[in-house]
Amino acid sequence: MESGYAKHQFKSWLSQFRNGSNPWMARYVYGFMFLIANLLAWAVRDYGGSVLTEMERLKGCHGVKDCLGAQGVLRVSLACFMFYFTMFLSTAGASKLKEPRDSWQSGWWSAKIVLWVTFIIIPFLLPAAIIQLYGEIAHFGAGVFLLIQLISIISFITWLNDCCQSSKSERCQIHIMLLATTAYVLCLTGIILMYIWYAPEPSCLLNIFFITWTLVLLQLMTSVSLHPKVNAGILTPGLMGLYIVFICWFAIRSEPTGESCNRKAEASNKTDWLTIISFVIAVLAMVIATFSTGIDSKCFQYLQFRKDETESEDDVPYGYGFFHFVFATGAMYFAMLLIGWNTHQSMKKFTIDVGWASTWVRIVNEWIAVCVYLWMLIAPIIWKSRQTAESA
């Protein structure tokens, strides 16, 4: 079905940008603005110290080294949050094309650029106490972002599994088995490598616990998925296993350098080209994750266990309000990554998400991911049993 803006598809992107006629193009502009905010926050953290010290309002860091850098990150994050939260308030509830909120979403770029620059300036005029308060609130907002991202990933895995299972052909079933087998092999390989890299000695009890518990969770997800009453197949637990193994690896990798159990961190302690490339990839991955999660406004339908509603030709292509809400919480999330979830922590240049706070946030995120996944498997059975009991 052609959408209401299909007639504009042959116009140039510059024309669509000027006329505000393409909401799909608009989301890339918002994503680019988010990337600029990420890079600005990083530049303020790593290279803005000499400039920030000239601003008296940024004092009050209690003598902690590089605290001004963390303050700068929070100020840029606050600016980004205010912009996207304003867009959220002004576009929430938009459902049809060509209504005023749709025009505001896709157009009026001159006004929005002025608004964005204004929001960038305002936080640098605020006292440090307000920024510290925002930093505490940002912990919660970043957690909300991680939860939304988690639900989006699980819903994608569920959708992929449903698409594969809908085809009864033997060739498709072979592909499912090959993909699931590959996922489990990668999971086990990752766990073995983590034991070698991050638990080289028996005294590394915490890392051994993290890795072993990840293996237990993988077994638990597989057992529940293959239970006769659930019958979710072997693909979804395999893909979820890849996800939690990746989170576990990311969590242990976030442990501070100097730990005897984190030899990989010690090996990468010097800032070299590989460190810089890793940092750039991490920033881009953060922006892409925020972007992809923002356009997935239908992911929560999997929690409600209902089919997509019928769409009409003049419906908006994605949830504008949800899109901006994700970017607003994403602004808090990138601040936490750049300061290691600790407003009084010194961060080395070209590092991201390092520190014990970062480690425990990742580990808890892994455990919540498993809980949400198991709930999405078990909840339909529980509700079906209740409906049967009520009708009996």
From TrEMBL:
Membrane topology: Multi-pass membrane protein
Family from the record: Belongs to the TDE1 family.
Pfam families recorded: Serinc
Keyword Transmembrane: yes
Protein source organism: Prunus avium (Cherry)
Species classification: Eukaryota, Viridiplantae, Streptophyta, Embryophyta, Tracheophyta
Name the record gives this protein: Probable serine incorporator isoform X3
A cellular component term, taken from the record's GO annotations: membrane
Superkingdom of source: Eukaryota
Matches recorded under InterPro entries: TDE1/TMS
Record field: transmembrane: 28-45, 72-92, 113-134, 140-160, 172-198, 204-222, 234-253, 273-295, 316-339, 359-383
UniProt keyword annotations, A-Z: Membrane, Transmembrane, Transmembrane helix
Compartments (UniProt record): Membrane
Primary localization class, coarse: membrane
